[in-house]
Amino acid sequence: MKKNVLQRLLIYTRPYRGYLVGALVSAVLSIAFTLWGPVLVGDAIDLILGPGNVQYAGILRILLVLCATILAGAVFQWLLSLCTNVVSYRTVRDIRRDAFDKLNEVPLKYIDGTPHGDLMNRVINDIDFIADGLLQGITQLFTGVVTILGTLLFMLSVNPLITLVVVLVTPLSLFVASFIARHSHEMFRSQSKTQGELGGYIEEMLGNQKVVKTFSHEEENQEEFAAINDRLYVCGQKAQFYSSLSNPSTRFVNGIVYAAVGVIGAISAIYGRISVGQLSCFLTYANQYTKPFNEVTGVITQLQTAFASAQRVFAVLDAQSEQPDAPDALELHDCEGAVDLEDVHFSYTPDRKLIQGFNLHAKPGQRIAIVGPTGCGKTTMINLLMRFYDTDSGVIRVDGNPVSAITRDSLRRLYGMVLQDTWLYSATVKENIAYGKPDAAMEEIVAAAKAAHAHSFIKRLPQGYDTVISENGGNISQGQKQLLCIARVMLVDPPMLILDEATSNIDTRTEIRIQKAFQKMMKGRTSFIVAHRLSTIREADTILVMKDGNIIEQGSHEELLQRGGFYSELYNSQFASSEG
Q: What is the pTM of this model?
């Protein structure tokens, strides 16, 4: 699994191969100059022959060369950091862009079925963890490999026997590092998953604080948060414990290497096989050689977190995209408004049937009202008409064309939709109204706002149409948000309308005005009206009464009341108390 993740990360670094080569060259030169230093120091030590017998001229020359090598090593170390930074941050920029693009490509079912906070955590925090891991990993990989190989070459040139001792102890350090890495990976993966769960819960609670406080649910929420937070603490504690073992363990092994080199080198110096300067050089190399193992294991936390986070991000990238439009799909720019549903079956989950054998014929310009108890399938019908979800079987047609043969974009442009749940984004009032028609003239925007009875309250805002709406309209009332959403649809002026409880948050006086505006807007347009308040649909040409995913009654308001069926019961249940 980690191998596959690493391969995919490397694929993302391909466009920056030049910087990778630059990093490798810089690493080689930086380490070469760094490793040359101990040789120069050893040579300088050997020029100190005894009291009163020091070759100062030779030592001075060596010191000048040593200063030059230190300076050159620092320059190439800076270039190494520059190249690895470019590779890391541009790579994660590309990953984040692809992840966001993927969220726009997946079916709505995927978005609805995944906690939004978890998705946000993957696109933001998990990719940041990848950046940290890549930055550490690339740097340590280049410098580590070059340091190990370079140190071995330098040591072999000084004394092959002592070099052999160092090499023989190396597998022990590798074994310790790999053992700890293998056992800590699962812990970091669990930690990353729990972080996503916690992010999803926080996002859900923050977005619904009014409901939480209304039902005095703070204590229960705190307990549930504490439970998830405690699980995250346990996962994080175990992950950190395992990773914290790596550095002291490898340092212990490195201490053994240093001691072995010191003892064997001292014995060799006594017997005249190496000089004191060479012994000093070898001891320095022993530290240089083992340093990469310490560095790699020292960043094991970032690396493990990066791999765990990369798996979560790639899970999003691997999600199945929405079925693409057929190559010969129609691009409809206008329509008469005839909508037919023929034997439509649909359910969100296979084990729970919802809509079965649904049939409907809406003539151009008709106003179709859909009513029924909660959960009967009213909003689901809207999802199918807009092709947010595809039918399990059956056909939906617009002007005789199956919707599967029409591009999704052009199909959705045929509808203007106002939902009960309003949505505004952080921008000016003008930009929010023009969301579906960005090139609209100011006169058109004002006309749409007047038609939606939003102009008067907009003019009272601090900057009028240039007032910036905070995130999701937090600085205006719920009713005002809905008026802006209605104005947005009126500006687009689509051939068909979908109104899903479009006036639910508007006061009665304004609702009467909006209903008149809707009546004018719906004239000549096929309209689908989902309503819980039956008083808003009396003027509909046809009322569909749904129950358990089926149409059980169909007709005008007066016809359905005369039948005395389910619709009549619904209507009387809403108005019996007021009439009495």
A: 0.67
